[in-house]
Amino acid sequence: MKFPDSESILRFVGAGKRLDVAEDCIFKTLIEQSWKHNPSERPTFKELGTVLDGILRRMTDKSNSTKGHSGSTRTETKSQEFSSSEKRYSINTSSSSTTNNMEDSKENEESIGTSTSSQVISF
What we know:
One of its GO terms (molecular function) is kinase activity. The protein is mainly alpha-helical. It is built from 4 helices and 2 strands; from the N terminus they run αααββα.
């Protein structure tokens, strides 16, 4: 969808509309949760950072496990313990999909504390 000007975007978003996110996008749940109308239902920046760190870690692990192997590059991810903020979102990188598993956001914000590392990711 093309928008001719910023006013069109404002009207579109202001009407509660959002662009579709591809089903195979690993960030689909994060994007959709970030678009929630009620701010208290949106993930905090700390939660986003923690979840994105987890996705990066799993993708790096998956990439490292396929290096030097011939044939199929598809690997199944092993179950891993999630930090309290990652419990909000179950990430399945082997099928490139995310499943939302929401918990009380206030509880998650308190438990994250200063444990979230800050990293700059460039693409």
